Amino acid sequence: MENLKALIQRQSGNIIYRFASIKKLLNFDKILKISLFISAALVLGIVLGFVVTLCVASFDFLKSVGFSSLLKDTWNPLTDEFGASPFIFTTILVSSLSLLLSIPFSLSIAISLSDKKGNKLLQSFLNTSLDLMAAVPSVIYGFWALFTLSPLVRLLQTKLGFAPMGVGLFTAVIVLTIMIIPFSAGISREVIKLVPQELEEAGYSLGATRYEVIRSIILPQAKSGIIAGFILSMGRSLGETMAVTMVIGNFNAFPKNIFSPANTISSLIANQFNEASGLHQSALIFLGLILLVITLLVNLAGAFILKGSRR
Amino acid sequence: MSIKTRKKKDKIFTLLVMFLSILTILPLFLILLYLIKAGFSALNLDLITKVSRPIGERGGALNSIIGTLIISLLATLIATPISVFTGLFIFEYRKKVVSKILNITVRLISGIPSIIIGIVVYLWMVKPLGKYSALSGSVALAIMMIPNTVTSTVETLEMIPIGLREASLALGASFAKNITKVILPLSIPGILTGVLIGLGRIAGETAPLLFTAFGNPFLNLNIMKPMDTLPLLIYNYALSPFEEWHKIAWGASLILIFIVLILNVLAKWIVSKWNR
Fold it and tell me: Is some CB atom of chain B closer than 8 A to the CB atom of A229?
């Protein structure tokens, strides 16, 4: 009898203990759910916070100078002249040129990597190299280009009769091309992999060569995804800063020819922001806002096309 | 077209593709070779035991090495919990519109130019406090890191067999217990990979630090003060006219690329081990 009582007591204690622990768990549930919500809200807030912050900080500039600066081309902070057009033009020019230059290379490497009968060893070598290229820091690309690429460009310039500066638009385009290839090739590789194998096999069974299969089956199938990949790499190259800053030559006007020094929006900011104050700083922030809006739009477009291509 | 010309075309195409593929990765090896050639002679004890010095006195990069470690690790500490929680949120509410918007947002964040992150964090933390600080640099890098880690978290969570989740829920596990005892332990390798790749990416970043961590020639351990990092040192020394500083910058580049490569190899190793 005594034993039974003790047993019942112990059991009920257990049950109470269990209830208590369930209650505790429920509280922990709540805490976890709240932290999930907070984190998600933080991440959601970042993009909006960025746009709002830049808008507020460039308000000074917009009030006193305004959007008309977008059309002017003289940049002289000392006389409060902030013509933004050379930088916007150079930014778009440099990234489009490097994108165009990168297309044959990234397509080739994507095709080599997706060849199912290809040499596996060579493919994994190419793959690893591509990953490493994406991992090399931008500042090291810039440093390398400054010391090995720009002397070569100087040689080319003397041969062609230009002023031998070494730095400038041309050097920046070359570095940027090298830097965005791993990115666009990576996306093309993924998209080409998604092409149904049956289609490819159907092509081969009809007697097509590999070239014909790629040209008439794989590329048309993967077209929209590959284009999306190029748009996304354009978004990346628009904002690339360090390597471009180091080799573009820091010159605040429209480039006169392909070799002349210039400044993109990001290299202008990198060069001047720390010394800028007042209206000058506000003007730089306004240029930053323009860059942000352009890259956001380009990235959104790329993301939507990519999503459509996966369906 | 005869079969012969078609075959010839195919051959030419194959060779062209191969040639362009090799040409594409050539710069990587040029860079690595040049780095090893120029950086190896700069690698000595001074580089890792002395701090930056004015030109003429033999200096090193100790302050930048320590600064890189502190700023990157702090950024990882800030970014990882936020990213893992956000990843869990996206996964748990994956049918809701919010999660789809979050997915797009994460992609947009990864597309924000790094220099813009620098400006915004400058406006958030440096301007109000009136001073550059390592902490603001870490916040900037954390923002850069979030997309990587969120994406890898979500991808990992999606790979966990639905049966395991259902089993734990059927046994009466609560929301929190299901996550902490079943889902998270299973996804740790995947999340870790994302963190390592993100860490490798931010360790080499310069642009977000120009206006936040700013750089500092002295050894500094206080995160509320300016701090130097390897990329900042490389940038400043590379643009200087001094041969001696270029040499230190090559040595620093070699150390930096070594750190980045190790992190990437480690991440790959975890993936291959986990996949087995």
Answer: no
Q: Does A51 contact chain B (CB < 8 Å)? A: no
Q: How far apart are CA A274 and CA A270, in angstroms?
A: 8
Instruction: For A233, name the nearest residue in chain B, comparing CA atoms only.
Output: B111
Round to whole Å and give the CA distance between B250 and B238.
9
* Crossing angle (nearest 10°) for helices B62-92 and A2-57: 110
Burial degree of A198 (CB within 10 A; 0-12, 13-18, 19+): exposed
Residue of A nearest to B23 (CA): A105
CB A63 within 8 A of CB A77: no
Asked if B201 and B79 count as a contact pair (C-beta separation under 8 A), the reply is no
Q: Which residue of B has its CA nearest to A238?
A: B113
Taking the Cβ of residue A308 and every Cβ of chain B, the question of whether any pair is shorter than 8 Å is answered with no
SS3 B85: helix
When the candidates are 3.90.79.10, 3.40.50.2300, 3.60.150.10, 1.10.3720.10, the CATH number that belongs to B46-275 is 1.10.3720.10
Structure tokens at B122: 């400058």
Nearest CA-CA partner of A272 in B136, B218, B119, B6: B119
Q: What is the pTM of this model?
A: 0.91
Per-residue confidence of chain B (276 residues) as pLDDT tens digits? 788 999 999 999 999 999 999 999 999 999 999 999 998 888 888 888 888 888 878 788 999 999 999 999 999 999 999 999 999 999 989 899 999 999 999 999 999 999 999 999 999 999 999 999 999 999 999 999 999 999 999 999 998 888 888 898 899 888 888 888 889 998 999 999 999 999 999 999 999 999 999 998 888 899 999 999 999 999 999 999 998 899 999 999 999 999 999 999 999 899 888 776
Residue in B221, B96, B76, B46 with CA at minimum distance from that of residue B143:
B76
**CA of B27 vs chain A CAs: smallest distance (Å):** 7
CB contact under 8 A, B207 and A241: yes
Q: Which residues, at least 6 apart from B122, have a Cβ–Cβ distance to it below 8 Å? A: A273, B136, B211, B212
Give the count of Cβ contacts less than 8 A between chain A and B: 245
